Write the C-alpha cells for this entry.
Amino acid sequence: MAAIGVHRPWYSAGIREWIFTTDHKKIAVFYGVTTLLFFLVAGLMALGIRLELWEPGLQFMSAETYNYLLTAHGVVMLLWWAIGVWSAFANFLIPLMIGARDVAFPRLNALSWWTFFAASVLVLLTLVPSNHIRMMWTGYPPFSLNDDAGTTALYVFIVHLVGASSIMGAVNFITTTLRMRAPGVTLKNMNLILHGIMAANVIQLLGVPSFAGAVTMLFLDKYLGTNFFNPNLGGDPLIYENVFWFYSHPAVYVMILPAFGVFSEVIATFSRKLIFGQITMVFAIWAIALLGFMVWVHHLFTSGIPDWVRIIFSYTTVLIGVPTGIKIFNWVATLYKGSIRYTTPMLFTLGGIFMFLIGGLTGIPLALPAFDINAQDSQFVVAHFHYVLGMATTLGAFSGIYYWFPKLTGKMYNEKLGKLSFWIIMIGSNLFYFFQFIIGLEGMPRRYADYPPIPEFIQLQHIQTVGAFILAVGILLSLINWIVSAVKGKEAGSNPWGSNSLEWQIPSPPPPHNFDRIPELPAGWDPYDYAHHKPQHT
C-alpha cells in the first residue's frame, strides 16, 4: 500500500524538539520572539525618558537612572532590535528563497541563538540597580572607566556574546546563500533581500572584531591597569572612538540593508512589476556596504581631528548617498504605472522609504563639518538617526512581518487593524522626531536629563512626548494584530500575494523539510517577473 502524504506544519513539535531544534524556521521564531520582547522593553524605557523630559527638573528619576535608561535603550534597540530582528528574517527566508532544506550549518545556527539568549539574560541583569550601566551605548572613555559609569564588565561581556552570535550567523548565512542555491537561482536573479542580508553579514564579519577589540581594551583599562585610553600615561581616548566607529557606523547598514530588501520584495509584489534597474540595485547594495567602512570619522568631526581629514570623510559621507539615491529612484520607477495594491505591507514599505528619505536628507548637512560642528551632540542628531534607524528600520521590519506572516503561520492578519496601526505610527513618529529636529536647532543637547525652563523648549518637549505615546499605541495595535491573527486569523492559502518568489510556491506554513524536491527553475526565471512567469496562486 502506498503511504498517504500528510502536510505537517513546521511548528508541530513537542517542547523537547523545540528546545533542541536545529530547524532554521524554529530558530527564526526564537530570534523573532526575543527581539520583539526586547523591543517592547526598550520602548518602555523610551517612554520613561520622554516622561522625564516633559518638564524641566528631575520629576520621576535621578540623573543616574536617566543615564541607565538612555544606555539600555540604545544598546537594546540597536543590538537586539535593529540588528537582531534581521537574524529572524535571515533564518526563516534564506533557505526558503534559495530552494534549500536548511542552512549550511544547522548546529552552528542553534548555537548562535543560544549565545544571543545568554547575552539577553545579561541584559536583563542590568535591570537590577546595582548592575546599572550608565555609559551610553557607545561606552566612551574616560567616563566608562569611572565608577559612575556602572558595571563596565557587564557591558563588555554583553557585546562579546552578541558579537560572537553575529559572527556565527554571518558565516552560516553567507555560506548558505553562496553554496546551497537550487539550480536556476543565481546571484544575478536571486531576491534582493538576500543580497541585503548577505551584504549586512559581510559587514558583520569584517566589523564586529573591531567593536569587540574596542570594548576589550576598555575592560583591560578599567580592571587590569592598562592605559590604552589614559592620556596621562601615553594613551588616547580617540583610539577608542576610531576603533568603535569603524564598526558602529557600518552597523547602520547592517540595520538598513535588509530593510531595503524588504522594500524591494513588497514593492515588486504589490505593483506586479519587475524591479526597475534590478542589476543596479544589486550594485547599489554592495556599494553601500563597501562605502560604509569609509565614513566613520564623521562621528569625530568635533574631536580635534585635522581639517584635511574632515574634508576627506565629508566627501565619503556625502558619496554614500549616491547608491542610496539610486535605490529610492528605482523603487519609485518600479511603482510607476504599476498595478499597485495598498495592502498593510505596502503601506509600511512606503512609510519606511518616506522616513528614510527624511533621515537621509538631514544626514547630508551633518556630513558637512561646518554644519555638523554646530549640531553635534544636539537633539537634531538624535532625530536624524531615529528617522533612519528607529523608524525606517522598524517600518521595514513591520512590513516584512506583515508580508511573510501568512507564510509563517498559514493565517491572514487583520488588514483594517494593520492599516490603522500604520497611520497611528506615522502620525506619532513624525510628531515625535520632526519636532526633535527643531528643538535640536534651538540648542537642546542630547543625553540631558534636565534643561532650562525656556517656554519654547517646554512646548516642543510636550509635543515630542505626546508623539511618543501615540507611536506606542500604533506599535501595540500591530502586536495585538499578530498575536490574535496567529490564533484566530483566516486561512491564508499557500500564496495569498500571488508572488513568483520560491518561498510562496510551497504550502503555508512550510513543512519541516521545506521542499519535497529541490526545485529546478527554468531559464530566465526571476522572482519579480510577473509578465512571463505566472505564479502558483491560491
